[in-house]
């Protein structure tokens, strides 16, 4: 197997971390900016002093590592193939951000079997790194994997943009999460907006229809402007918050991160998977072992 990964060695801080906050980023429709949101939100939280782990679960079209200019030696696909341990995949990104990369182009891997899900969450329970926040960058669509990761998270951010398909696909995702997976709260983030009011209008559109048909609490998280600096940062393989901190998108991401930091971690686990995910942190592990 691999040589020992320095990041994966026990580096637990002496102060016990609180429960890890798990935030899933999803969108329904592809290409709305979900990975850009995941990367920049994770980076903003890390820069604000939250020890953050960014998990790329998009096994079909992974690109978190590409966006951050990282060169994975192992990816999640290797974990599933038994070629390495989860700890071997851990990469250290800018400012100490931890990244678990997925593998691009493995279309057949986009759907995890229930056993692989259990294996993954079990592998997370074995990780011995202190983390305050875990951001999950999901694949587009409404696959079982997406639903499971969203269900496992304490908060779900649904990214929308100003395209009719984005709003209808976001609604379809929220509907399944609410009706089939017991998700009761959804944060909506509008991306690529031309004007702040555009974000609010998108949210209102979505909220009207969810209020009518679904039993789910919606919250407007805010908007990220359409920003040429973000595209340039992608070309430089950096998070825009690091490459161009004064860019409008960077300022918006920092605001969103501040809001996310204030979210209350629920007292009890929502479901079986969340129970295991919470074992990511050592204190809970000993309490639940
Ligand atoms: N706020 C923004 N301003 C300008 N361009 C943006 C913004 N957000 C995303 N983009 C553009 O949209 C493209 C797609 O973004 P991204 O890869 O983050 O989307 P995605 O939803 O994760 O896609 P996929 O579904 O394929 O994983 C980016 O390469 C970038 O050019």
List keywords for this structure.
289 residues; alpha/beta; eight-stranded mixed β-sheet; 13 helices; 8 strands; disordered C terminus; binds adenosine-5'-triphosphate
Structural summary, described in words:
With 289 residues, this protein is α/β, with parallel strands linked by helices. The chain contains 13 helices and 8 strands. Helices cover 43% and strands 16% of the residues. The chain has a single domain (18-282), classed as Rossmann fold. α6 crosses α7 and α7 packs across α8 (196-213). The longest helix has 18 residues, at 164-181. The model is unreliable at 1-16 and 268-289 (pLDDT under 50). An 8-stranded mixed sheet has the order 3-4-2-5-1-6-7-8, with helices on both faces. β7 (185-193), α8 and β8 form a beta-alpha-beta unit. Adenosine-5'-triphosphate (ATP) is lined by residues 27, 30-36, 58, 61, 140, 191-192, 224, 226-227, 230-231, 234, 249. It holds the Pfam family CbiA. Keywords: ATP-binding, Nucleotide-binding. This is Cobyrinic acid a,c-diamide synthase. InterPro entries: CobQ/CobB/MinD/ParA_Nub-bd_dom (IPR002586), FlhG (IPR033875), MinD_FleN (IPR025501), P-loop_NTPase (IPR027417), ParA/MinD_ATPase (IPR050625). Residues 23-238 form the CobQ/CobB/MinD/ParA nucleotide binding domain.
């Amino acid at each position: 197997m691999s040589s020992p990964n320095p990041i994966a060695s026990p580096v637990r801080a002496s102060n016990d971390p609180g429960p890890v906050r798990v935030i899933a980023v999803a969108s329904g429709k592809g290409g709305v900016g979900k990975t850009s949101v995941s990367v920049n939100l994770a980076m903003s939280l890390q820069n604000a002093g939250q020890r953050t782990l960014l998990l790329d679960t998009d096994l079909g079209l992974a690109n978190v590592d590409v966006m951050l200019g990282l060169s994975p030696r192992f990816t999640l696909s290797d974990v599933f193939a038994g070629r390495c341990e989860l700890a071997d995949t851990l990469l250290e990104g800018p400012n100490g951000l931890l990244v678990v990369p997925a593998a691009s182009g493995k279309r057949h891997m986009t759907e995890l079997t229930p056993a692989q899900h259990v294996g993954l969450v079990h592998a997370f329970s074995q990780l011995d790194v202190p983390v305050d926040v875990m951001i999950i960058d999901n694949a587009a669509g409404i696959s079982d994997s997406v639903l499971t990761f969203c269900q496992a998270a304490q908060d779900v951010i649904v990214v929308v943009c100003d395209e009719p398909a984005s709003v209808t696909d976001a609604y379809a995702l929220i509907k399944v999460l609410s009706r089939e997976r017991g998700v009761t709260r959804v944060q909506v983030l509008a991306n690529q907006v031309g004007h702040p009011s555009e974000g609010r209008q998108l949210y209102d559109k979505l909220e009207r229809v969810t209020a009518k048909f679904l039993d789910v609490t919606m919250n407007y998280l805010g908007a990220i402007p359409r920003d040429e600096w973000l595209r340039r940062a992608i070309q430089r393989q950096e998070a825009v918050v690091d490459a161009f901190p004064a860019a409008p998108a960077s300022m918006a991401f920092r605001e969103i991160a501040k809001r996310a930091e204030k979210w209350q971690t629920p007292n009890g686990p929502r479901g079986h998977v969340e129970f295991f995910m919470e074992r990511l942190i050592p204190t809970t592990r000993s309490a639940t072992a």
